[in-house]
Specification:
561 residues, alpha/beta, OB fold (Dihydrolipoamide Acetyltransferase, E2P), inorganic pyrophosphatase (n-terminal core), Diaminopimelate Epimerase, Chain A, domain 1, 3 domains, five-stranded mixed barrel, five-stranded parallel beta sheet, 17 strands, globular
Length: 561
C-alpha cells in the first residue's frame, strides 16, 4: 500500500499553517479571531474579566442575613462537600467570615460514607450546637426535604451551589446558583468555590471590609476551579490564572505543605500540578473512607486548609500524602479487577456493579474504563445498606440527563454532564443496570464513541523551537475547553528508539527537524514505526527542562503509513 498523503480519518485541522505566529493561529482556531479578543484572553485581568457577584440570584437576601448574623453574634455553620471543590469552598468561607468579624463559624464536611449533601438529621444537630444560620457550599440545590425541615425548625438556610437545578428550587432563605433559570449571571460554569467567593465579595462590599484579604484567597478558588474541571475560558480562566499567581506566593500553609509533599516548588506551580498532585491528595482521604472524625473533631483536610500553624500543616500533609499512595495502589488493583468484567465490544457504554471495592474509588475506576473504551462508564459498589455509583462520560451524552431519566430508581443523585454520582437501594440495582444499559445503547447513535481528533493547526519545522514553546505557555492555564494546543506534525521517520525500564516510551526523530518527538506509555504490543515510514502525529509542543532546556514534541495521537 502506498503512503497516505492526506489526513488520517477523523482528524480535523482548524487553521492551516501560515506565516501568522503559531500562538495566534491556535487562538484563532479556538474562536478568538479579533485582536481585541486575543488581548482579553492573554491579559486575563481580574477586574475587567470577572462579573459582578451581585448579579447572582439571591445574593442580596443572603448578604442581608449574614450581615444580621454578624451584628447579632449568631453562630454560622458552613456545610460543604468532601471533594476538591467542596473542601476548598468550605475553607474559603470559614477563613473569609472570620476575617470579616464573625466569631462563631464552624465548617462541616460529611464523610463519603454518610453521603453527599446536607441531611435532615443534621438540621437538629446544628440547632442543638447553637447555630442559627447554615450556608451550604458546593451542594444544596437538590436538598428539598432538608430545606423544608430547616424552615420548620427555624434554621435559616443559605444555599450556594453550582450544580444543575432539577425541578423546583429548595425552600431556603436564599439559593445562590448561576444555573437557576432566572439567573442573569453571565457565567453558568462557575465551580462551587467560585460561587462562594462571589457571595463573599458582595458581603465584603456590604460590610465595607477591604477586599484585599479575598484576593489572597484566590489560591483556593484556582485549586477548585481546576480540580472540578469546569471550562477554563472566560471568567473561569481569569480566576484560575490569577489564582495560580496567588498560589505561587501563597500564605496558606496547607496548600504550601500539600505542594511540598508532592515534590512541587509552590513558586512554580502550574494547573497541571493542581490537577495531578493537589486535587488527588485532597480527594484521597474520603476515597479511602479515612475521613471519619470523632465527635467535635474537624475534618483533617479542613484543618489543613485553615490552620495558621505551619508545622501542623506539614504534619497533616505528610499524613495525607501517605493516604494518597495507598489510594494509587488500590486504584491500580481495582481497575484491573473491574476491567476483567468490561466487554470492549459493547456499544453504548459499561454499567457494572463491582463487589468489595470502596465506593469512594468508583469515580476513578469509571474514568479509567471510560478512557479505555471511549464509551460512558457507570461503576457501582456497596456502602453499608446502600449502593453508591459514579459515572464518567467521554462522549457528548449528558450524565445528568441519564440520571434524571432513571431518577425513580435513585435515592440521591447529582453532578455534571461528564461526571455524576448517585445512591440507590440494593433492591433497585438489577432494574437500574437494565435501564441504564438500554439508555446508553439508545443514546449511542447520537453520541458516538471516539469522535474526531480536533487539531488546532499544523506545526511547521521552523516553528519547533524553544521560543515558540515559551509563547504557547502564555496560553495557560490548560484544562477543560482550553486544552494544551494540539498540533499536526507530518514527516518521514528517520530514527526510533525505546526508553524506560519497560521499554514502553518512544523517542522519534524525523527528516525535517532534529527535535525529539516522544510518546509515553506505549502498549507493549504496539510495533515501532519503521524508518522511512510517514508519521502523522497530533502533538503538543513543550519544554524538556532536564539538563539544558530544549523544545520537545509529545505524541497524543499518531498514524503511520
Amino acid at each position: 500500500m502506498g503512503r497516505v498523503l492526506t489526513l488520517p480519518p477523523r482528524w480535523k485541522v482548524a487553521v492551516k499553517a501560515s506565516t501568522i505566529p503559531l500562538s495566534q493561529r491556535v487562538l484563532t482556531a479556538r474562536g478568538l479571531k479579533s485582536k481585541k479578543e486575543r488581548e482579553v484572553f492573554l491579559t486575563a485581568d481580574f477586574y475587567t474579566g470577572c462579573f459582578d457577584g451581585w448579579d447572582l440570584p439571591d445574593v442580596k437576601p443572603a448578604v442581608e442575613r449574614l450581615k444580621l448574623a454578624l451584628e447579632s453574634g449568631e453562630g454560622v455553620a458552613v456545610y460543604g462537600d468532601y471533594d476538591a471543590d467542596g473542601i476548598p469552598a468550605t475553607a474559603l468561607m470559614i477563613r473569609a467570615l472570620k476575617n470579616a468579624g464573625f466569631t462563631k463559624v464552624q465548617g462541616f464536611i460529611p464523610t463519603r460514607k454518610a453521603g453527599y449533601g446536607l441531611r435532615e438529621e443534621t438540621v437538629d444537630e446544628l440547632l442543638a450546637a447553637g447555630f442559627t444560620v447554615v450556608i451550604t457550599v458546593d451542594n444544596g440545590i437538590t436538598a428539598h426535604a432538608v430545606a423544608k425541615r430547616a424552615k420548620q425548625r427555624g434554621l435559616e438556610l443559605i444555599i450556594t451551589d453550582h450544580h444543575e437545578v432539577v425541578g423546583e428550587l429548595p425552600e431556603a432563605l436564599a439559593v445562590v446558583d448561576p444555573k437557576r433559570s432566572d439567573s442573569r449571571y453571565p457565567n453558568l460554569a462557575l465551580c462551587g468555590t467560585a460561587v462562594a467567593y462571589k457571595l463573599l465579595w458582595s458581603l465584603y462590599d456590604e460590610l465595607g471590609v477591604s477586599h484585599n484579604y479575598l484576593k489572597w484567597q484566590l489560591d483556593l478558588v484556582a485549586v477548585a476551579t481546576i480540580a472540578d474541571m469546569v471550562p477554563l475560558t472566560g471568567e473561569n480562566r481569569v480566576l484560575a490564572k490569577v489564582g495560580l499567581s496567588v498560589l505561587r506566593k501563597t500564605r496558606n500553609y496547607g496548600l504550601r505543605a500539600l505542594l511540598q509533599v508532592s515534590g512541587i516548588d509552590y513558586t512554580q506551580v502550574t494547573a497541571r500540578d493542581v490537577m495531578y498532585a493537589v486535587a488527588p491528595r485532597i480527594n484521597a482521604l474520603s476515597r479511602l473512607g479515612r475521613d471519619e472524625t470523632k465527635p467535635g473533631d474537624e475534618n483533617l483536610l479542613l484543618t489543613l486548609l485553615t490552620t495558621a500553624d505551619e508545622s501542623k500543616a506539614l504534619a497533616i500533609a505528610v499524613q495525607i500524602n501517605e493516604f494518597n499512595l495507598q489510594r494509587q495502589a488500590l486504584v491500580t488493583q481495582y481497575v484491573e479487577r473491574a476491567g476483567q468484567q468490561v466487554d470492549h465490544d459493547t456499544v453504548g457504554g459499561t454499567v457494572l456493579y463491582v463487589a468489595d471495592i470502596p465506593s469512594g474509588l468508583t469515580g476513578l475506576i469509571a474514568g479509567k474504563i471510560a478512557d479505555s473504551t471511549g464509551w460512558p462508564a457507570l461503576i457501582m459498589a456497596r456502602e453499608g445498606e446502600e449502593i453508591r455509583g459514579s459515572g464518567r462520560c467521554p462522549t457528548s451524552m449528558s450524565m445528568v440527563d441519564l440520571l434524571v431519566e432513571l431518577a425513580p430508581l435513585l435515592t440521591r443523585y447529582g453532578g455534571h454532564r461528564q461526571a455524576a454520582g448517585w445512591s440507590m437501594t440494593a433492591q433497585d440495582l438489577p432494574a437500574f443496570i437494565t435501564a441504564a444499559q438500554a439508555y446508553l445503547q439508545q443514546q449511542s447513535a447520537d453520541h458516538p464513541r471516539g469522535g474526531e481528533v480536533a487539531i488546532d493547526t499544523a506545526l511547521q519545522p521552523h516553528e519547533a523551537t524553544l521560543d515558540t514553546a515559551n509563547e504557547l505557555i502564555k496560553l495557560e492555564p490548560f484544562g477543560t475547553d482550553n486544552p494544551e494546543p494540539l498540533l499536526l506534525w507530518n514527516d518521514t521517520v528517520r530514527a526510533v528508539t525505546t526508553m524506560g525500564q519497560q521499554k514502553n516510551h518512544w523517542r522519534i526523530t524525523t527528516t525535517k527537524s532534529p527535535i525529539d518527538i516522544v510518546y509515553f506509555g506505549v502498549p507493549s504490543t504496539t510495533p515501532l514505526p519503521a524508518v522511512g515510514s510517514m508519521l502523522w502525529a497530533a502533538v503538543t509542543l513543550g519544554v524538556n527542562s532536564y539538563s539544558t532546556p530544549r523544545p520537545q514534541l509529545t505524541i497524543r495521537h499518531y498514524y503511520v503509513s
